[in-house]
Write a structure and sequence with these properties.
Number of helices: 1
Radius of gyration: 18 Å
Number of strands: 0
Order of helices and strands: H
């Protein structure tokens, strides 16, 4: 029972980390597009 709980927590942690990395990547892409627009204009 304890092992299952530990595994579940680890899985949730991985999902959280993945989600934050994706959010960060999306933000960075948005920011770089904005910067490219500024440079081109």
């Amino acid at each position: 029972m304890m092992n299952y709980r530990k595994l579940n927590l680890t899985g949730r942690g991985i999902i959280t980390v993945t989600a934050s990395i994706l959010a960060l990547a999306y933000l960075m892409a948005d920011l770089s597009c904005y910067l490219i627009d500024l440079i081109l204009l």
